[in-house]
Amino acid sequence: MGISNTEYFSLFVTTFVLVGLLTPLARQFALSKSIVDNPNQGHKTHRDPIPYLGGVAIMIGVLLVSYGTALISDFTIDTFYLASSVLLPALILGLIGLWDDIKNLSALPRFIAQTVAGLFTALLLVNTNTSGNPTGSELIDTIVTIVWIVGICNSINFFDNLDGGAAGTVAVSSIALAVLALNGDQSVIAALATVMAGGTLGFLIWNKSPARIYMGDAGALFLGVVIAVLTIRLDPTTDQLVGSFATPLLLLAVPILDTTVAVLSRLRRGISPFQGGRDHLSHRLIRRGISRRVTAFILWGLSALFALLAIWISRPNLEYERWIVYGAGALWALLFVFFFATDDE
Description:
Helix content: over 70%
Strand order of the largest sheet: 1-2
Mean pLDDT: 87
Low-confidence stretches: none
Oligomer: single chain
Strand content: under 5%
Distance between the termini: 51 Å
Number of strands: 2
Number of helices: 13
Order of helices and strands: HEEHHHHHHHHHHHH
């Protein structure tokens, strides 16, 4: 399926506008039904109740544009299945997240539900041979895919702790993913990534600091599954195996860093990793006197830096590809040491 640059731009603009219009409607509905995030726990940093359901607007926008495009274009059955194998598992996780937003589930049942759904998605991808970067071993492919999808799904959910933080970072990753897929002639992945970028930026209008609505678990889990699946479905155009395996990690380096710092910090203090806390990257930067708005820009900037490195190593005949990957890994490690060394609370 060939898609022109004009059609990609149309996908982006349509999703951006649609989600931008749906989000205030979701906000009004959430307020009318008192589906809000109350600042009633110690790790909450906002002062007034903020409505949820922004994730519902994202899901509706992404699904409508994706399947609407499929109906009016020359999508084949195989292409339609390819899109559905990404979007339908994400919808299931999004609905589980919506249930949590409304019923306010405790951490353990929520994590179990997310993990079971992520496990199902991973097994589906491996058993239908639709996951990217196969290692040649079905067992290893299965384990890596399960760990990746479950991990990124929860990582994006963890990362949604700052106004605009998760939405902006997923937008950056989606734009880079679209560029990489375009360079590799993977039009379906490029189209879905373009739709994701438009949807998250349309939502960001309302979610940037000071946020007027949150995406909630519905949005975070939906976005987490889509971006996790797209990154492993991507076939990087790198020359070396190390670059191929590094590409997904670079695209999501900052959410992975945030989760690693938060989880290890909690284990160090002898508390549950599933317990909320003010130990994420955003909280640590804010405690250094940086405003919430600037903190968001710092995290977006770091995401963009790693995303640009992912695009850089995709260039053909790049002699120092391996050293760029090693340098990116060293930078990630330095950032980990910097954040982990700061105060947890």
